[in-house]
């Protein structure tokens, strides 16, 4: 195993909405199981108001807050798209500007694709 040094800027938080908690839980399990995410928080009962195909929609959804490495984003995004029931799922990545050293070290270990 080679030693990889990660900087805070190597980490991201990805926001993904889903139609229901069961869908979010299935996606989260796949992402963590594949080491594409170290942790996924599922926030229940959010309300989303948006325009879709010319119409204003007002729907209940759940929000996944996914912690991962920047270098895994494309693969994570493709996996979410393959598992998600929406034709255009929200997948937005935000940089981690600061974080505790211990948490980021743990996140780096949990998203190390060379680990079993």
Walk me through what this model shows.
The protein is an alpha+beta fold and 116 residues long. The protein has a single domain, classed as Alpha-Beta Plaits, CATH 3.30.70. 29% of the residues lie in helices and 36% in strands. It contains three helices and four strands; from the N terminus they run βαββαβα. The chain has helices spanning 21-33, 73-83, 101-110; strands at 11-18, 39-52, 55-69, 91-95. Strands 2-3-1-4 form a four-stranded antiparallel beta sheet. A hairpin with a 2-residue loop joins strand 2 (39-52) and strand 3. Helix 1 (21-33) runs antiparallel to helix 2. It starts with 10 loop residues before the first strand and ends in a 6-residue tail after the last helix. The mean pLDDT is 93.
Spatial order of the strands forming the largest sheet: 2-3-1-4
Using only C-alpha atoms, the radius of gyration works out to 15 Å
- Count of discrete structural domains: 1
What structural category do the secondary elements indicate? Answer: alpha+beta
Distance between the ends: 11 Å
Keywords:
Alpha-Beta Plaits; 3 helices; 4-stranded antiparallel sheet; alpha+beta
């Amino acid at each position: 195993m080679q030693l990889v040094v990660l900087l805070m800027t190597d980490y991201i938080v990805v926001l993904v909405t889903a139609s229901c908690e069961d869908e979010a839980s299935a996606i989260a399990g796949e992402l963590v199981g594949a080491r594409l995410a170290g942790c996924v928080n599922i926030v229940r009962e959010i309300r989303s108001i948006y325009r879709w195909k010319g119409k204003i929609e007002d729907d209940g959804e759940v929000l996944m807050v996914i912690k991962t490495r920047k270098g895994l984003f494309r693969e994570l995004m493709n996996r979410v798209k393959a598992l998600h029931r929406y034709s255009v799922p929200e997948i937005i990545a935000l940089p981690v500007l600061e974080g505790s050293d211990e948490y980021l070290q743990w996140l780096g270990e949990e998203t190390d694709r060379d680990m079993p």
